[in-house]
């Protein structure tokens, strides 16, 4: 039985806002997604950004097969108690040698923990979906992206990005807006696979994220009114409910890499399969 640790770095106020919007925090979404991919796995959730947070009683990092870092509104280029606690946790994960995976802010946390840098997006707000993510030479042969085509779209909502990867990291994918869309980072005793986008999110949660960030979308010039944001989010949510609606997919410019849940979850499935292979090798 695989054992997973989900590290939810959303601060409490963001956690509650997300629950009000879509009914679950980022960590709770991860738990549901992981159990759908690995039925029977044992999953624990911790909140490393929170003061006084720690592992479950009696647990140690060595007892887990993999660690998962969620998205978060934390800005990793700002030194605050919350970012400091989160980065210190990630350094402990690297030191433990336990493989880890992260999406969006998870990639940024791992980058900073290993000596890289993060900054505000310089080419604009990537909201709703990251378009035409393209594999690098390393990405075309890396197991994290096995099954992805040469170019694909994915759910994404972020205002920050990786500026410089740590020394020795592998750039696996990027697009016109965000140069680092997927990467492998090796630091200390550990290895991290991460993406800037959100394979764990259903389209209902993408719609909820757009609505929560309406003011930011207006400020960025991506919409001219609250009504435009709501109309777009309604279409995304409708496609979640009816993923085979070709008219909605056409209007939104999406294909099966996003609308098909199995394809959308590619990176998480690949990481879990890699953990299973590693566990099997240890037991032989």
UniProtKB/TrEMBL annotation:
One Pfam family per UniProt: GATase
Native source species: Methylobacterium oxalidis
Record-linked InterPro entries: ChyE-like, Class_I_gatase-like, GATASE
Residue span(s) of domain Glutamine amidotransferase: 61-210
Cited Gene3D superfamilies: 3.40.50.880
Protein name: Glutamine amidotransferase domain-containing protein
Matching PROSITE patterns: GATASE_TYPE_1
Annotated region (Disordered), positions in chain: 7-26
Compositionally biased residues, Basic and acidic residues: 12-22
